[in-house]
Amino acid sequence: MYISVARHDNSGAARWGDRRLTELDAIRPSSDDQRSALDIACVENVQILGGPARKMPALIESEPAMPDNSIASPRLAQMQIAAQHLDETIAACDRGLARSPGANGQAWLLRIKACALKAKGKRRKFATLQQALQAAEAIPDKSSRDRTIAMIQDALLEGAKR
After folding, report:
1. Residues 6+ apart with CB under 8 A from 52
2. Per residue in 115-142, pLDDT tens?
3. 24: which residues sit within 8 A by CB, 6+ positions away?
4. Within a 13 Å sphere around the CA of 102, how many CA atoms are in the beta-carbon half?
5. Cβ neighbour number for residue 45 with a 10 Å cutoff
6. Could you state, in order of their start, the residue ranges of all structural domains in the chain?
7. Residue 85 carries which DSSP code?
8. Over the chain, what is the mean pLDDT?
């Protein structure tokens, strides 16, 4: 799939992507780790090729199936926003934030939530980005912290220009 994308062979990429999703659909996860790995693979595939609706049911199922996994909600929120399901995106972010995901997870969820709020034309997006920035400042890994802070600051600057 990646080679097809690199070659600008969209039909080939779609065939490989569809084949991969079909393979992933056939796997019934036996643990939270396996479910999480499947979700990651599906989200990555969908981000490259589009079509978030196809994997939405599996991601919706994963969130309550893994109540102690703080990554299930942001993955679902990513696909919800890609499908322009803005209210559902915000709800998934709020559920994820209630799981106390840590600084990186908080920043990730708040950035997604701010994008959904922006798409809805809500002014709360700035306050949400400020919260994301506060969370990002607590990310332990310096390179991840710096990269996340830069993304949030870019979003804040973009919003200030409008």
Report:
1. 46, 79, 80, 82, 83
2. 999 999 887 888 999 999 999 999 999 9
3. 38, 41, 42, 45
4. 10
5. 20
6. 1-100, 103-162
7. -
8. 88
